[in-house]
């Protein structure tokens, strides 16, 4: 029997759209929280129509909306705001990623919600945060990656900066939103009272930039794009194999490098005092990349990986989506969650990502995929005390 997740009994109201707040809601729901997602009547979260669709709903929404309940509610109307207050009054956490000031205009700002529910943890995600001179600017993840410093490092020196092929800023902000929510709940348990968590997309990105700014401030160094290498450590790069596939090699530890050198039949590199530490290897990055590049081209990806694994050198193939669906380690770790989805009038088994992190005693689980728009409106309103007549009136007025 599936154990209840560690967040069973925690009630979450998700008011956000797109990626950031829904990512936080998904993680909380994965581990047992009752997450009620509030969506616009008629259209719902715009994420429902992003990327590839199965019917009227994208597989991206099925992923980020999993384990949640969906209700429709027009938060721009007074009646909708009244319903939201009743919902929030019984909640532990509220997630939102509207532009700053939106909740306040609806009468749902932090002061109003604190009076309504003193123990509430309100998690707010926005492009630039709730304060500061940029707070009112619209901010999406791609912009946050630029402002937060990431785009200055991506790509190759002779080409325009590139972006990562996923919504990195939004997803990282979602992780910080979860951390903030959990810290708020822990503090409430110990001391009482609620919390307001302010997560900015650009700050979520900036927090990943390691010593980018300290290196500049202390030494005047401005890092630039370095392709597939990681500046300051060597050898650590991506190499093309003879079969056209790629392998990533991280041979930048002193002992690891010596093992790597012997594995590629270059004991002279292992014995070279100029390459004995990272500083020396960084000074010889081009030379090492040329040696490893030529070695990789002389064998298949599988053969290169096997050789390096035998020498205990960290390495790995670059996997495509097809490779991942066939990988036994993903399977063994529960990262392949297969569910049936209606596509073109046929039920098709589709592989969805599993739950992270893995907990031994009270693991999370994928119980349901992202719900249909408003699938749980009647149930949730009934729980809040709205009778048949009240629900019918809300529906007739377009509130739900």
Write a structural description.
α1 (20-30) crosses α7 (168-191). The chain is elongated, with a radius of gyration of 25 Å. Strands 5-2-1-6-7-8 form a six-stranded parallel sheet, with helices on both faces. The protein has a three-stranded antiparallel sheet with strand order 9-10-11, with helices on one face. The mean pLDDT is 96. The protein has helices spanning 20-30, 59-64, 78-89, 102-105, 110-116, 141-147, 168-191, 201-206, 212-219, 254-263, 267-271, 278-283, 285-297, 301-310, 321-326, 328-332, 377-383, 388-396; strands at residues 11-14, 34-39, 53-54, 57-58, 69-72, 93-96, 121-126, 195-200, 236-240, 246-250, 315-317, 336-343, 346-353. It is of the alpha/beta class and 400 residues long.
Nearest-angstrom radius of gyration?
25 Å
Number of helical regions: 18
Shape: elongated
Strand order of the largest sheet: 5-2-1-6-7-8
* Main sheet attributes: strand count, strand direction, barrel closure: 6 strands, parallel
**Count of individual beta strands:** 13
Q: Quaternary state, please?
A: single chain
Alpha carbon gap, first and last residue: 36 Å
Structural class, please? alpha/beta
What is the average per-residue confidence, as pLDDT, rounded to a whole number?
96
Proportion in β-strands: 15-25%
Helix content: 25-40%
Low-confidence residue ranges: none
């Amino acid at each position: 029997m599936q154990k209840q997740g560690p967040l069973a009994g925690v009630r979450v109201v998700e008011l956000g759209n797109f990626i950031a707040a829904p990512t936080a809601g998904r993680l909380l729901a994965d581990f047992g929280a009752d997450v009620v997602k509030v969506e616009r009547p008629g259209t719902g979260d715009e994420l429902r129509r992003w990327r590839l669709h199965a019917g009227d709903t994208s597989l991206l929404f099925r992923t980020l909306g999993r384990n949640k309940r969906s209700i429709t509610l027009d938060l721009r109307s007074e009646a909708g705001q009244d319903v939201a207050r009743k919902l929030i009054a019984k909640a532990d956490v509220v997630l939102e990623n509207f532009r700053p000031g939106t909740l306040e205009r609806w009468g749902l700002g932090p002061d109003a919600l604190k009076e309504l529910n003193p123990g509430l943890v309100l998690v707010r995600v926005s492009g630039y945060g709730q304060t500061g001179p940029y707070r009112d600017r619209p901010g999406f993840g791609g912009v946050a990656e630029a402002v937060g410093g990431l785009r200055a490092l991506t790509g190759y020196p002779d080409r325009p900066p590139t972006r990562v092929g996923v919504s990195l800023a939004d997803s990282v902000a979602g992780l910080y939103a979860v951390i903030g929510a959990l810290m708020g709940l822990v503090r409430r348990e110990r001391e009482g009272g609620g919390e307001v968590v302010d997560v900015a997309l650009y700050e979520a990105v900036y927090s990943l930039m390691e010593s980018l700014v300290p290196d500049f401030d202390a030494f005047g160094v401005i890092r630039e794009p370095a392709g597939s290498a990681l500046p300051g450590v060597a050898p650590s790069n991506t190499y093309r194999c003879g079969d056209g596939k790629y392998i990533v090699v991280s041979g930048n530890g002193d002992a690891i490098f010596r093992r790597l050198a012997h594995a590629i039949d270059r004991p002279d590199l292992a014995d070279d005092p100029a390459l004995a530490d990272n500083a020396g290897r960084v000074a010889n990055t081009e030379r090492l990349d040329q040696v490893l590049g030529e070695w990789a081209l002389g064998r298949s990806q599988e053969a290169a990986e096997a050789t390096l694994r035998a020498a205990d050198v960290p390495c790995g193939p670059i996997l495509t989506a097809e490779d991942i669906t066939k990988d036994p380690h993903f399977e063994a770790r529960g990262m392949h969650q297969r569910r049936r989805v209606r596509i073109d009038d046929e039920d098709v088994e589709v592989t969805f990502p599993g739950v992270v992190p893995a907990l031994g005693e009270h693991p999370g689980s994928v119980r349901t995929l992202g719900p249909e728009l408003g699938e749980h409106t009647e149930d949730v309103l009934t729980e809040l005390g709205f009778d048949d007549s009240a629900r019918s009136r809300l529906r007739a007025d377009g509130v739900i």
